[in-house]
Amino acid sequence: MLIDLHTHSNISDGTQRPRELIRAAAAAGVDVLALTDHDQTTGWEEARNAAADLGVGFVPGMEITCHASVGGSVHMLSYLHDPHYQPLLDVLDVTRTSRESRAQRIVGLLAEDYPISWELVQEHTQPGSTVGRPHIADALVSVGVVINRDEAFSSMLSSRSRYYVSHPAVDAVDAVRLVLEAGGVPVFAHPMASVRGRVVPAEYFEELIEAGLAGLEIHHRDNSVTGKKFLTDLARKHDLIVTGSSDYHGAGKPNRLGENSTDPAMLQRILSAGTGSMASI
Ligand code: AMP
Ligand code: FE
Ligand code: FE
Ligand code: ZN
Predict the structure, then answer these.
(1) Is 279 inside any structural domain?
(2) Residues 219 and 143 in one domain
(3) Is 109 inside a domain boundary?
(4) How many whole angstroms from 15 Cα to the centroid of ligand 4?
(5) What CATH number is attached to the domain comprising 142?
(6) Per residue of the chain (281 residues), what is the pLDDT tens digit?
(7) C-beta separation of 59 from 273 below 8 A
(8) Is residue 280 in a domain?
């Protein structure tokens, strides 16, 4: 069984629409796929229908952009939550609105040195999708400033760049609580992705677990080898769900569908714990 529980469509910063993503998953031999766009769930319906047509199992999900009180950014996956739970929708609205003004500010700074405009970025962003630095990267690629997203992220779009602007986001502990209230299953995405910047300290994991964190995404290409060892011990200590996923973004990243997989018994635990929406397996 190939079970891939972390993927993006162009509802956020993936490059394929949900139906195309499901088609690619079927072609890659994925049996069960979760769609986990950043900060919104408007891709669920199209993905669910396509998955039914193509015989792929579908788990509705989302990846919530969060701040950690100890500093740094945390991505919290949520599976099977109620997409209409208003307190969660309220914080997602704030995040998406501030993502938009933040992206405009980054573009304003970049425009002093590069031939880029907000209009150009919008041409590379699906209307209504969650905007992020990858869309700015695509605009930079289109005018020949960089060759791909990765080059943009290692230069002008890096968090250490002088063009970088941050944005407000929900506190990660609050996100865990909101996901649980919405009947969802909170899983910490790529928790030891040191390649992306700093990771949160061990004590902070305990705080999230105390709040009800259900799982850890251990099998992810961005987690360091020593980080995976730490996470494996932590999962065993607290009997947490362990997942493995690709974090596929279509052509936006080298990550391939199904490059990591989740154990069927772990998927079963997610399906049993989630009560806010239905999977189609
Ligand atoms: P943002 O949410 O605007 O801060 O941008 C972060 C997003 O950019 C993440 O969701 C990643 O999927 C994506 N990203 C980060 N690093 C890279 C990279 N090197 N190449 C392509 N996409 C990246
Ligand atoms: Fe992304
Ligand atoms: Fe992420
Ligand atoms: Zn992701």
Answers:
(1) no
(2) no
(3) yes
(4) 13
(5) 1.10.150.650
(6) 999 999 999 999 999 999 999 999 999 999 999 999 999 999 999 999 999 999 999 999 999 999 999 999 999 999 999 999 999 999 999 999 999 999 999 999 999 999 999 999 999 999 999 999 999 999 999 999 999 999 999 999 999 999 999 999 999 999 999 999 999 999 999 999 977 667 899 999 999 999 999 999 999 999 999 999 999 999 999 999 999 999 999 999 999 999 999 999 999 999 999 999 999 99
(7) no
(8) no
Query: For atom 8 of ligand 1, which residue has the closest CA?
Result: 134
Q: Are residues 55 and 135 in the same domain?
A: no
Query: Same domain for 74 and 140?
Result: no
Ligand 2 centroid to residue 208 C-alpha, Å: 22
Which residue, among 28, 58, 29, 54, has the nearest Cα to 43 in the 3D structure? 58
pTM for the model stands at 0.98
Residues forming beta bridges with residue 256, ordered by sequence position: none
CA–centroid distance, 70 to ligand 4, in Å, is 21
CA 155 to chain centroid, in Å, comes to 22
What ranges make up the beta strands (E) of 106-211?
170-171, 185-188
Report residues whose beta carbon is within 6 angstroms of any ligand 1 atom.
13, 38, 132-134, 149-150, 153, 249, 252-253
**Would you say 63 and 33 are in contact if contact means Cβ atoms under 8 Å apart?**
no
Q: Look up the domain containing 14 and give its range.
A: 3-93+167-273
Phi/psi at 224 (5° precision): -70, 160
**Within a domain: residue 188?**
yes
- The preferred substitution site among 8, 9, 13, 246 for testing ligand 1, maximizing ligand atoms within 8 Å of CB, is 13
